[in-house]
Amino acid sequence: MILAGDVGGTKTRLALFEPGSPARTPLLERRLESRAYPTLEALVGDFLAGAPVRPRRAVLGIAGPVVEGRVDATNLPWRADAAALAAALDIPEVRLMNDLESTAWGLSLLTPAEVEVLQPGLPAAGNRALIAAGTGLGEVVLVWTGAAWRPSASEGGHADFGPRDPLEDELLQWLRAKYGRASYERILSGPGLADLYRFMSESGRGPSPRQRPEGQPTLRGHQRPGHPAAALRTALQPARRDRETGSRNSIMASRSTARAARASSPTSCACC
């Protein structure tokens, strides 16, 4: 049995797969709130407590740079270690990988109906880029080897924000005053969108979160009244389905990597 997971700063999706089964038909799947648990071990242990069988192998995609099987999660107060996780949960083989790298391995599983073309062009062999905005901003480059695309993890979302016009110059100063340093993740992410709303409001370019034009419906059942994330959540409702699909594809990617890792040695990776 294979345990696959997509560990995000807000939510975590875990699933169990029978070896050789279709990627879209897990034996068990759950979504858990990441910050409800003090450690990754506690979260995975809670999931496995309701599992009918114990996995023999596990691969988890987690936000942050993974070095020698260890990672300090970017948007969670966790330090995860593959060896410690294996010992604590009695799983013989555990592998941690960058979450966007995991997602990249699953891109080939997407169907044409799950792809939205932003700008038509002519297909050509070459490198690809994968960008995913969530709690943070993940970026991966997929290098064309001549036969396939090989994902390479990065922390590109933490690159310094480079303004291109006076408005962005002003935004940079606003972000620096708030955080001390401004990266692209401070703009293109869930918290970043809320900060953009605050910036436009505080600079006189838009209404404050507590202002509502006459006739506009109230935002019930979301964040606390007056919070900019409430307005953003309502405005971005159609995109939630895309995020759910992305998370599921990350699970499928993790499963594919787990199967490949079964045949790999400590010094070589069959999936690469």
Characterize the structure shown.
The chain has helices at residues 40-49, 82-89, 99-105, 166-179, 190-202, 228-235, 240-262, and strands spanning 2-7, 11-17, 28-33, 57-62, 70-72, 79-81, 93-98, 128-133, 137-144, 149-153. It has 272 residues and is of the alpha+beta class. It folds into three domains: 2-109 and 241-262, Nucleotidyltransferase, domain 5 (2-Layer Sandwich), CATH 3.30.420; 121-154, no CATH class; 166-239, no CATH class. Helix 3 (99-105) crosses helix 7. It is globular. The relative contact order is 0.15. Mean pLDDT is 82; it is low at 217-223 and 259-272.
Oligomer: single chain
Element-by-element helix/strand order: EEEHEEEHEHEEEHHHH
- The overall pLDDT average reads 82
CATH domain topology of the largest domain = Nucleotidyltransferase, domain 5
Q: Can you summarize this structure?
A:
The protein is of the alpha+beta class and 272 residues long. It is built from seven helices and ten strands. The longest helix has 23 residues, at 240-262.
SSE map:
Blueprint: E1 2-7, E2 11-17, E3 28-33, H1 40-49, E4 57-62, E5 70-72, E6 79-81, H2 82-89, E7 93-98, H3 99-105, E8 128-133, E9 137-144, E10 149-153, H4 166-179, H5 190-202, H6 228-235, H7 240-262
Parallel strand pairs: 1-4, 4-7
Antiparallel strand pairs: 1-2, 2-3, 5-6, 8-9, 9-10
Helix pairs in contact: 3-7
Defining key terms:
single chain; 272 residues; alpha+beta; 3 domains; three-stranded antiparallel beta sheet; disordered C terminus
